[in-house]
Design a protein that fits this description.
heterodimer; A: 5-stranded antiparallel sheet; 5 helices; B: mainly alpha; about 0% strand
Chain lengths: ~425, ~110
């Protein structure tokens, strides 16, 4: 396989020089550092395969579910979300499209380019960025395909359970402030973001995403150089990551080093072909349907999860029992969370934990007495501050995007 | 473990205050190595898959997919060839599809 890896392709060396990173993405040559398989976990996905390894083989990362080694797809185990509404950096999920990921970043040489339809192109060092007004925001970062493994009929792609998401306090600067320094010219339509990762194959599409100019300048979209008070792990986008609160992770470009203001609509592959959803409510089409008008994926709907009770657990009938978990409103705050211990027949409003901001996970909890004996389905339902409530019926689309159905945890009451 | 039964004391929310970024936050250069993935496609007919698929991604991605029909596997392989520019010999496409459709994966 080494022969098939055109490591010296294109102008990789010159581009790296330009970018000031000495990073050699010699993934194919790097030996496994530690045993990949520390233990196994069952997710469980309908129809399987549902066995995954728990890996600790990735630098700066703790125990994560191994979905793919190269380029890395690493999932956060659900019990991590039971510990805190803040997902620790070393347990935060990881998702890369291409395997040429610089593995060495020199913070003194890194530069962010701001160019295109602007009055003055910029080349900003990390010191330059850190000298700009500092902002903080707590926000959920969720993969477009989170929970894809539960789509039925099943669809291809990363076979995630619910752990392709995380919540962190992001520290950095407003994108608006950076764009203002460059001076956006009249007629700007979109802003396109590119990171240091590159495709292995020379003709393959480099990963880029874009936002409309008004969205980019809304004062909330930011460039983060820290998560949870520390620099980002390399696999989460060190040294700089775009934060697009309330929108799916595909827009949160990692290792961001290039911002291009466009006066024409972005036509790159990752906008026009990939990450498209049906232009229907909840991106929902008839299972199996592949023809539909599509739009780029965008905002997130509300979701919620039980984190302290696992599928298949046994609960004591009639005993005071705690259910606890997390919810988020998507592009709005959490208004209320309701819980059902009888498969959705009766609902009770849960108590909400501290509000860390509208884009954050919010913890919820409730005490209940499991009855009657037998198999029961626990359910949790989030309503956002914009009045959107999770639905009872699952959505379906061929890419497995945007799952938002009320989730269920099957337990035995005895 | 705070699971199932609630003790007499109400379990407090275990919110951990996210550490505010230190004003003196310093970024440090990073130099790491990433694991490469040592799984291979195995068994008769696996050569075409090993030779054509592993340049861009490790084998686990494929082995974790749900049960797919031969037509669905062909769609995936063609997507790799056309959208993601995998330089496959067209005659290898059939061999890869045959292999993938015949894979026995524990489910």
């Amino acid at each position: 396989m080494k022969k098939a890896l055109p490591i010296g392709h294109r102008n990789l060396a010159s581009r790296r020089h330009f970018l000031g990173t000495a990073g050699a993405a010699t993934l194919a040559l790097a030996p496994p550092l530690r045993a990949l398989a520390d233990s196994m976990v069952t997710l469980p996905l309908p129809g399987g395969p549902d066995e995954r390894q728990i890996t600790t083989a990735f630098p700066e990362k703790g125990a994560l579910i191994l979905q793919r080694t190269r380029p890395p797809l690493l999932e956060t185990p659900l019990d991590v979300f039971d510990q805190s509404v803040f997902t620790p950096n070393d347990r935060f999920f990881v998702r890369w499209h291409w395997s040429l990921i610089p593995t060495e970043i020199d913070v003194t040489k890194f530069r962010l380019a701001v160019r295109g339809h602007v009055n003055q192109s910029l080349s900003l060092s990390l010191d330059d960025l850190m000298a700009l007004p500092r902002v903080e925001l707590v926000a959920v970062n969720q993969c477009s395909g989170n929970s894809r493994g539960y789509f039925q009929p099943r669809v291809t792609g990363g076979q995630w359970s619910h752990g392709a998401m995380g919540n962190a306090r992001w520290t950095g600067v407003r994108l608006k402030d950076v764009l203002d320094r460059a001076g956006v010219k009249a007629g700007a339509l979109q802003v396109r973001f590119n990171g240091l990762d590159e495709p292995v194959l020379p003709d393959a599409p480099d990963f880029m995403k874009s936002l409309d100019i008004d969205h980019a300048r809304d004062g909330e979209v930011m460039l983060a150089y820290a998560m949870n008070g520390k620099q980002l792990p390399l696999l989460n986008g060190f040294p700089l990551r775009l934060i697009v609160p309330g929108w799916y992770s595909t827009y949160w470009v990692k290792m961001l080093n290039d911002i291009e203001v466009l006066d024409q609509p972005d036509t790159n592959f990752w906008t026009t072909t990939a990450y498209r959803i049906p232009d229907t409510p909840r991106a929902n089409v008839r299972p199996g349907q592949t023809e539909f008008k599509s739009v780029p994926i965008n905002r997130m709907p509300p979701r919620s999860f039980i984190t302290n009770i696992k599928e298949g657990d046994t609960l004591q009938a009639g005993a005071p029992t705690l259910a606890r978990g997390i919810a988020f409103g998507g592009d709005a705050g959490v208004s209320r969370v309701d819980f059902s211990s009888d498969g959705g027949k009766a609902w009770q409003q849960a108590e909400l934990g501290k509000d860390e901001g509208k884009y954050s996970f919010r913890q919820w909890q409730i005490r209940f007495a499991p009855l009657p004996k037998g198999s029961q389905r626990l359910m949790v339902r989030c309503t956002s501050s914009s009045g959107e409530t999770q639905p009872e019926a699952p959505n379906w689309n061929p890419s497995g995007f945007m799952r938002d159905v009320i989730e269920q945890t099957s337990v035995a009451v005895g | 473990m705070l699971r199932r039964t609630l003790p007499a004391v109400l379990v407090a929310f275990c919110a951990v205050a996210g550490a505010n970024a230190d004003d003196k936050l310093l970024l440090k250069s990073v130099n790491i190595d990433l694991p490469n993935g040592d799984r291979m496609f195995e068994g008769p007919g696996s050569d075409a898959a090993n030779n054509n698929c592993l340049a861009c991604h490790s084998a686990g991605m494929v082995l974790n997919q749900p049960a797919l029909s031969k037509a669905q596997w062909r769609t995936e392989v063609e997507k790799m060839r056309t959208a993601y520019k995998a330089p496959m010999d067209p005659k290898d496409v059939d061999a890869i599809v045959d292999y993938l459709a015949g894979m026995k994966i524990a489910r």
